[in-house]
Amino acid sequence: MISTYDPEELHEECGVFGVYDLDGADVAPSVYYGLSALQHRGQESCGIAVSDTNGPKGVVKSVRDMGLVNEVFSKDRLDSLKGNIGVGHVRYSTAGASVRENTQPLVINYIKGTLGLAHNGNLVNAPELRQELAMTGAIFQTTIDTEVIAYLVARERLNAPSVEGAVKNAMAKLKGAYSLVIMSPRKLIGARDPWGFRPLCIGRRDNTFFFASESCALDAVEAKFIRDVEPGEIVTINREGQIFSDRSMAIKKPAHCIFEYIYFARPDSRIDQVSVYNSRIMAGKILAEQHPVKADLVTGVPDSGNVAAMGFALGSGIPYGMAFVKNSYVGRTFIKPKQSARESGVRIKLNVLEDAVKGKRVVMVDDSIVRGTTSARIVKMLKDAGATEVHVRISAPPFLYPCYFGTDVPSSDQLIAHNHSIEEICRLIGADSLGFLDGSRLAELMDGNTNYCDACFSGNYPVPPPEGDIRGEC
Amino acid sequence: MISTYDPEELHEECGVFGVYDLDGADVAPSVYYGLSALQHRGQESCGIAVSDTNGPKGVVKSVRDMGLVNEVFSKDRLDSLKGNIGVGHVRYSTAGASVRENTQPLVINYIKGTLGLAHNGNLVNAPELRQELAMTGAIFQTTIDTEVIAYLVARERLNAPSVEGAVKNAMAKLKGAYSLVIMSPRKLIGARDPWGFRPLCIGRRDNTFFFASESCALDAVEAKFIRDVEPGEIVTINREGQIFSDRSMAIKKPAHCIFEYIYFARPDSRIDQVSVYNSRIMAGKILAEQHPVKADLVTGVPDSGNVAAMGFALGSGIPYGMAFVKNSYVGRTFIKPKQSARESGVRIKLNVLEDAVKGKRVVMVDDSIVRGTTSARIVKMLKDAGATEVHVRISAPPFLYPCYFGTDVPSSDQLIAHNHSIEEICRLIGADSLGFLDGSRLAELMDGNTNYCDACFSGNYPVPPPEGDIRGEC
Amino acid sequence: MISTYDPEELHEECGVFGVYDLDGADVAPSVYYGLSALQHRGQESCGIAVSDTNGPKGVVKSVRDMGLVNEVFSKDRLDSLKGNIGVGHVRYSTAGASVRENTQPLVINYIKGTLGLAHNGNLVNAPELRQELAMTGAIFQTTIDTEVIAYLVARERLNAPSVEGAVKNAMAKLKGAYSLVIMSPRKLIGARDPWGFRPLCIGRRDNTFFFASESCALDAVEAKFIRDVEPGEIVTINREGQIFSDRSMAIKKPAHCIFEYIYFARPDSRIDQVSVYNSRIMAGKILAEQHPVKADLVTGVPDSGNVAAMGFALGSGIPYGMAFVKNSYVGRTFIKPKQSARESGVRIKLNVLEDAVKGKRVVMVDDSIVRGTTSARIVKMLKDAGATEVHVRISAPPFLYPCYFGTDVPSSDQLIAHNHSIEEICRLIGADSLGFLDGSRLAELMDGNTNYCDACFSGNYPVPPPEGDIRGEC
Amino acid sequence: MISTYDPEELHEECGVFGVYDLDGADVAPSVYYGLSALQHRGQESCGIAVSDTNGPKGVVKSVRDMGLVNEVFSKDRLDSLKGNIGVGHVRYSTAGASVRENTQPLVINYIKGTLGLAHNGNLVNAPELRQELAMTGAIFQTTIDTEVIAYLVARERLNAPSVEGAVKNAMAKLKGAYSLVIMSPRKLIGARDPWGFRPLCIGRRDNTFFFASESCALDAVEAKFIRDVEPGEIVTINREGQIFSDRSMAIKKPAHCIFEYIYFARPDSRIDQVSVYNSRIMAGKILAEQHPVKADLVTGVPDSGNVAAMGFALGSGIPYGMAFVKNSYVGRTFIKPKQSARESGVRIKLNVLEDAVKGKRVVMVDDSIVRGTTSARIVKMLKDAGATEVHVRISAPPFLYPCYFGTDVPSSDQLIAHNHSIEEICRLIGADSLGFLDGSRLAELMDGNTNYCDACFSGNYPVPPPEGDIRGEC
Fold first, then answer.
1. Which of A62, A103, A129, A139 is most worth mutating to test chain D (most D CB atoms within 10 A of its CB)?
2. What is the CATH number of the domain that holds A238?
3. Among the four B349, C125, C467, D150, which has the fewest Cβ within 10 Å?
C-alpha cells in the first residue's frame, strides 16, 4: 500500500497565523479558523499556542500534532487553550522530518519569559548558524529553522532593550526566507525577511489584531485586511494596542516568490498588493497570446489550473469548461491498496467528464510540470474520453532549478525540463502541443512589479544558495 | 460548538457497490476504491463485507463503522478482508439514527447460509412490514429498511428455489425505493425497485463483475460500464460467470429520481442512459431561455451549481467564471467553535473571489433552495465583494413536497417555497431577480424520457407516501 | 509479536449486571461500577444499555465495544447514556468470534417494544434452536446464544401475557447454562437456568434494585446483598417496585459450577450462600490433609492460588508467604515483541522473590493445571531462585472433560491430565511432588451442598452435552 | 467526574533503562520489557529512544507519549525503532506539567552529534542552573531537569575530551538526586549522583549490557545483575565492550532514599546490596517488637503493605492472612462518575474479605499515612465487615517533611503527622491502636548501613533544600 502523496505536486512548506485580542477574549477559535483557511499551505501537522496577557507572565498553553487542523483540534483541545494572544501554524515537510518534535509553533522559555514562534520559509544559512550556536553549547531538540531563530532571538535579547529589538538583531544574521509571527508574554510581532519571499499580512477586527500568511485567512475570521507586512519589516503590537513598525532591515530590491501567485496561494488572497486571482487570469491571457491554438474547449487541471484556464479562454475566445471531476474526499491519508495492474487508483482522485470533451480539441491549462508523469496521465485520460487533440499550456516557465526559500521544487535531476527540450516533453506527455509561459513576462503577473524571485525558473537566486544543496526546514 | 452539518444541503441517503472476481482474487481493494468514488452519496458511515466463494460456505468478514471510507479503512482492516466476492456501502442518515448498529452492509445468517446486503433507498411500507414480521416473532436489531428486506428474503427463501427467487418474492412485498446489492455464498445479485428510483449499474473488467450506484465508481476501478440494471430487474451472477436477468417485476412506467441528475449524482456518471453532465448543461440552457437577464458573469455555487452555470453561459452568451473558492479541507467533522458574533465561520467553507465579481452583474446558479438561509448568505457575500447585481437561477423547480424515496428533502413547513411566493423568496435572499427551472421542462433533462419522479416539486408520488410522514431508513 | 493471551489460563465467559432506579436517577454510572467489579469475568468487550422508564417506550441507548470497561467508557460515552433502568455485560469469548457484532447487551425491537438482554452461560441446544428458528425464516446477525434467547422470548411474547411469562416459556426450550438480566421498557428481570450453573444475585440500595453475577459487584455500588436468584427462578421488578418471583421452572437437583468457587469468582463474593473465600480456605485445608508434605513455606500462584495456599498453611502449620510479584500493568493487550530466545517475556508478568524462597522447601498452591506449561515454568523459576524442593498442590481435581456450560475448559486432547498420570505430570512440570484435590471432597467446598456440577472433573454432565462438541457462545 | 488519582498515594517520579547490544541486534523490545517491569515507578508517560552504533552518527529514533508502556507502544511503533543502543523512561509528574513536551527520553543534537537522556530524580538547584544558562542565551522547551542536565553536558563537552568527561564536569554543578542513563552515538553511560538517592544498577546478558533503575527490570530481560552503579560513579560502555568507571565524584557519606525500600521499589528488586523484600520483612518484625498487640490476624494493605505484614506476622506469631481484594483492572485512567452520595467508588478499587476478618482482632500494616483519609476508609471497611479491633501499624516513621529528591511527599501542611499527635491520628483514622516504625531503627532496614536519607521523617536533608519550596521535575 502506498499513500497518495503525489511527488508531482509541489508543496508549500507552511502557513502562519497570529492574533491579539486587546479586549481579553480567547483567541484559539480565531486561530483555528485562520489555520483552516491556510490549510492548503501545509497538511501534515499543525499547532496553536496561546497565552493570557493579563495573567501570570510566561504561561503558554499549546497543542501541536500531526494531522489536519480539524483532525488535531477537538472541541476539548480547543477549549483547553485559554488566552487572548496566540499563534498558529500549519506545516508541510519533507518525509524525513515528518515527526511530532518538528511541529510548530515552537514554545520556548528564555531569559525574559516565554516566546511562541511560528515560521514560514527556509533559511539558507541554518547549518552554519546551528554550528555556531552548538560551538557555544547550544542543544537542539528539533531540526527546524524556527529553533535556530528562537535561539538567536534569545541570545540577542540579552543585549537588546526589547523583544522586537532582539528580533531585529537576530534578523541581521538570518539569510533566506522567513515570515515570522512571534508571541511574547505581552506582545505580538510579525516579521518578514528583507526579500519578502513568503507573504505575511496584517488584519484587524475591532480591538483584535491579526497576522496571517494570506489575506484569505483574514476573511475567515471576518477581519479587515490592513496591509502587508513589508519585506524586512518588524511590526509589533503591544498591550496598549499601539503598533510599531521597524523597517530598518529593509533592502532596495525585495524578491517575492512568483510561484505564490502561480500556484501556492489561494486565488481569493491578495499578496503584496496584487490579487492572486488577477495574476492567474493574466498568466492565462499571456499564454493565449504566446501559444495560440485552434481548439473547442479550454479547461483547467483542478483546482490550481482553473483560473489560468479562464484567463486563457478570455484571451483566446475559446470557451472555458470543466473537463474533470475531482474527488475531494480523497485526502492526504488515503491509502492505495495494491491490486491488479488494472486498478491503478488514478481515476479515484480525478476523473474526466467524457461528455464535456468527446470529439473536442481541448486546451488543458496547468500550473507546472515537475516530473511529467501526472501530465501524461491526464492527457491520456482526455484522449481516452474522446478528445481529438490535447494542447497543454503551463502558466509558468519550466522548472529548471531547485528552491531554497520554502518550497519543495526538487533537485534539477528530477525536473523533466532540466533534461528535456520542450518538444521532448510534449512528446513524453502525449500532448499535441505544449506551451510554457515565457519568463520574460512574469512581471505582468505582479502588475509590473519586478521585485520577484524566479530562481526556480531562471537560476537567479536573490540570496546565494547553501552549499551542498542542504535546505532548511520550517 | 456545532458541527458544520448544513441543513440547507440536501443529503442522498446511500451508495452501494458489489464485486465478484471469478478468478478468485481479493476484492476488498476494489470495493474500497468504488466506495471512495461514491463517497458523495453518504459520508456518515461505511462498510465492506466479503467472502470467499471457493472457501467454506457462509464465512463472511466485514468491517463497518462511522466515518469516511479512508477514515474507517486502514491498511490493516483492508488486509483482513480476504475474499473474492464483496459488497460495500456508504451511508448518510438523519441524525437520530446515526449509530453504528445501523451501518451497512448488513450481514445475516439464515437457513441457507449467509447474506450480505447493501441497500440504497427508502421503503414507504417499512413500518407495516416490520409490524407484520414482528407479529410472527421477528426481532430487529437496527432501524434500517435493509433489515426488513433481509427478513423477507430469508422467509421467502424457505419456499423459493434460489436466493434470486427469494429476492423476487420479497420484492413483491416491498413498496418504495431500493437499489440492492446482495451477496450470497456463491452469487452476487443486483436488484432495483420497479420504479427505478435510485440508480444501479453493471460493470465488468476481465473476469470481474461489478454493481455500482453510479458509473463513476466503475471508472474508479477501471471497469467498463455494461448497462444499467433496469427498473424491477434482478441480475444474478453465479460462480460460473453466468449472468441471469429476471425482469418479471418490471412495470410500465418507471420513475427515476430527477434530482439525481440535478444534484445528487456526480457529473461524470451516466444514469439510465443519460449523462448527468449533459443533463445539467441542459438545465442551465433552459434556465437561460426561461429566465434571461443582462449580466456580465455567470457563476455556479460550488460544486453542484457549476455545470448548470456553464449551461446557462452557453445558453445566454454571458461568460462563465469562477466566483468562489471552496475550502475542501473543511469536512463533515469540522467543528465551529463559538466565538464573537462577528466570527460566523461562514467564509471558512466558501469565500468569494472579489476580483472576479467586483463591479459586475452576476448570475449565480445553484441547484436548489431549501430553507433559503444559505442562498441569502452567498448573495450577500457577492454584494459585499462589489457585485452590482445578483441574479439567482435555480436549476430545478421549487421544493414543495417531502421525498419518501431516499433523500432528505424536509417536511413542507420547512421548505421556503412552500410558504413563500417566488417574489418573496427573491426578496428574502436579497437577490435582484430569481428564476426556477419550470417543472414542465424536466423531461428535457433526461433526453425526453418522461419516466421520472418529480414528487418533491409536483407532489405526484409514483407510490403513495406512507401514513404519518414516517420515512424509511437506508 | 504475540499477545499475552495465555492458553494455560481458564476464562470465564461473561458477567452480567442490571439496575432499576425507581426514583428515576440515571443508572449508567452504577452499571459502570458494577461491570468494573465483574471485569475478571470477561476482559474482551463490554457494554451498557439503558432506557428511561418514564420516557417514551422503547427508546434504548447503548454503547458496546471491544475493550475493558474503563477503555470503552469515556466520560462522554457514559454521559450519553441517560436512563433509570439498565443492563450491562462484560465478555470473554473464544478468539474466532471476538468481533464487535457479538458484544452485549443485545438490544432488540420486537412486537412489544424493546428488550435489552445480558447473558452469561452457554446453551447446549443453541444449534438446534437456531436451525428451528431459521426454518421459519429467522435471520441472525450474531453468533451468540443471547440472540437465540431473544428470538424465543419475542416469539413466546406473542402468546404470553407478559414479558416474564414469555421468558418462562422460552426457558422451557433452553438447555444449558444461562444467567440472564433482561430489561423491558418498564421491567427488569433476572433469571437463572434450572441447574443454576452460573451465579446471579439480587441487591438493593434504597429504591434501587440490582442484579449481578457476583455479590462483589453489589459492594462496588454500596448495595446490600438480598439473596441469590434461585436456580430456575425468574425475578421481575416492575415500575411500582414490586418484586415477583416465579419458581415454576425449578428442578430438584441444581448443579452449581464448582469451579466458580475454585477459580472464577472473586474471593469477596458469596455465591449460593457459600463464601468463595471460605470455599478456597477449605480447599487448601483438604489438600494439606490429603497431600501432606514437610516444607518451610506455603505460597500461592497469584492471584488465584493465594487463598487456597493460606488454607493449606492453616491446615499444615507450615507458614504462608508471598513468593511472587505479579506485574499488574501487564494486561490483555500487552504485546510480546519477539527478540532473542533468551528474552521470553516470562518474567514480565510474574517474577519470583528470591529472598523469600532461597534454600527453602516450598509448597506451591495453584487452582488448576490445564496444559502444564505454565506450571512447569513457575516451578523452574522457584528452583532457579534457590528453592530446594517444590511441592505442587492443586486446589481442584484434574481436568479430564470439556465444559459446555460457560467456561473454556478445552477439549480432552489438550488436557494434560487426560493423557498423563499424576506421576507423569509431576515429572513433566519438574515438581518434587504433586497432589490434586480429591473429587470426593468437593461438597465440602460448598458447606456440604452436593448440588454442584463437576463435569469437567468427572464427566458427569447434568445436561447431555451437545453433539459434535459444538459449544454455545455468550 | 474525577480520575482515580489518589492524593493519599505517594508517587515515585521516574524509572530509567538503557541497553547496548554489542552484537548489533535491535534493543527496542528489551527496553519495552524493561520499562514494563519499571512501570510502578511512573505511569503517566513513557518513551524509548534508540540509535544504531554501526549506522550514520547521530540518527536517533524515538517515540514518547502519555500513557502506560503497553498503551504507547504498539507493534508498529516498536518495529519502527531500529537500533542496537537505546534508553527508556517511565514518568510520573505533578499534574501541572503533565504534558507531552515533558516526556522522556530527551533527545538532543549538540556539537558532537546526538544524546538521548533518561533521568530519575530531582535537582535542588535546577532554577539557579536554568537562570544561569538563560543568562547566556539558552532556550528551554520543557520544564524538566533533564533539559538542564543536557545543556550542562553539551556545554562541558566543548572543553571535555569525551562525553563521559562532560558528564562528570556537569555533575560538579548538579545538586540533588539524579540517576542518569545517557546514550551518545557510540556509548552508553550510567551515572548516579554522589548521594545515590535513586537506585541504578548494571546488568548483562551475553554481549548485551543494561542499566536499570531496579534489578527487577534485569530479570524481565533475563539479564544477570552485575552490580549497582555506585553513588557518584559514572559507568561508560563503549563500542568495543569496554567498561570504564569513574568514581572521582564519590563522596564519603551517600544517602540512599530509605523510602525506596519501604514503598517505592518492587520487593523483587535488590538495591545497593540490600533486598527490598528482606528490608520490608525486617520493618514488619521491628514493628511487631516495638508495637506488640494481641490479635487474631495480621494483614497488609495491598499491595505495598503485604511484605511488612508478613514480617509482623513472623515477629509476633500472629497468623498472616489476606483481608482485601484489589481490583487490578482499575487503573490510572479509571473515571469515577459522580452519582449518589452512596456510591463513592471506594470499594471498586479495594474490597474487604468479610469472611477473613469477621469477629477478629486485626493488625493492619501499611507503609505510610499521608493525609489519613485512605487509612480511615480502610479501617472503617474492616470494622463494617465485622473486625472487632483494628490495630494499624505503619512500616515507616511519620512523614513530617517534604522530599526534594524525586518523590512527591507533599508540603508539611498537608501531612497529617505534621499537625497531629499519633494519638490524634489514631483517633482520626478510627483505629484501636496505631504504631509507627521508630526512626532510630531505620538502619536495620538496610542491613545496618547508615548511609540513607530519611529527610522526609527527620528533616535532615543531605543537601540543603531549594529556596521557596520549588522542586525539580524529572
1. A139
2. 3.60.20.10
3. C467
Question: Residue for cell digits 515560521?
Answer: A119
Q: Could you tell me if B240 and B289 lie in one domain?
A: no
Asked if residue C210 and residue C105 are part of one domain, the reply reads: yes
Number of domains within chain A: 2
3-state helix, strand, coil in chain A (%, to 5): 30, 25, 45
Q: What is the pLDDT of residues D258-309, one digit of tens each?
A: 999 999 999 999 999 999 999 999 999 999 999 999 999 999 999 889 999 9
Domain limits for position C378: 278-448
Residues from chain C contacting residue B143 (CB–CB below 8 Å): 109
Decide if B151 touches C, using CB distance below 8 A.
yes
**A393 DSSP 8-state letter:** E
Profile chain A (474 residues) by mean pLDDT over runs of 10 residues: 47 89 96 96 95 90 93 91 97 67 93 95 94 95 95 96 97 97 97 98 97 97 97 97 96 96 96 97 98 98 94 96 92 68 72 97 96 93 97 97 86 87 96 98 96 96 83 69
Q: Does D106 touch chain A (CB under 8 A)?
A: yes
Q: For residues A452 and A231, what is the distance between their CA atoms, to the nearest angstrom?
A: 12
A456 assigned to active site:
no
In this structure, are D122 and D247 located in the same domain? yes
Chains that touch B (3 or more CB pairs under 8 A): A, C
CA A132/CA B365 separation, integer angstroms: 60
The answer as to whether C261 is a domain residue is no
CB proximity under 8 Å: A 194-223 to D: none
8 A C-beta contact, residue C184 and residue C114: yes
Tens of pLDDT, residue by residue over B6-51, are 545 666 679 999 999 999 999 999 999 999 999 999 999 999 999 9
| Exposure on the CB side of residue D204, measured as CA atoms within 13 A | 10
C-chain residues near B135 (CB < 8 A): 111, 158
Instruction: Establish if D263 belongs to a structural domain.
Output: no
Q: Do B39 and A344 touch (CB under 8 A)?
A: no
Q: Is residue B456 part of a domain?
A: no
Co-location of C431 and C301 in the same domain: yes
What is the distance between the alpha carbons of residues C318 and C312, in angstroms, rounded to a whole number?
Answer: 8
Confidence (pLDDT) at A331: 74
For the segment D420-446, what is each residue's pLDDT rounded down to a tens digit? 999 999 999 999 999 999 999 999 999
Mutate to test the interface with A, among D100, D139, D153, D155 (most CBs of A within 10 A): D139
Partners of residue D331 in chain C, C-beta under 8 Å: 70, 329
Positions in chain C whose pLDDT score sits under 50: 1-5, 7, 95-96
Cis ω on the peptide bond leading into residue B105 (within 30° of 0)?
Answer: yes
What's the CATH code of the domain at B389? Answer: 3.40.50.2020
> Which residues of chain D make contact with A108, given a CB cutoff of 8 A?
139-141
Is the peptide bond prior to C303 cis by the omega test (within 30 degrees of 0)? yes
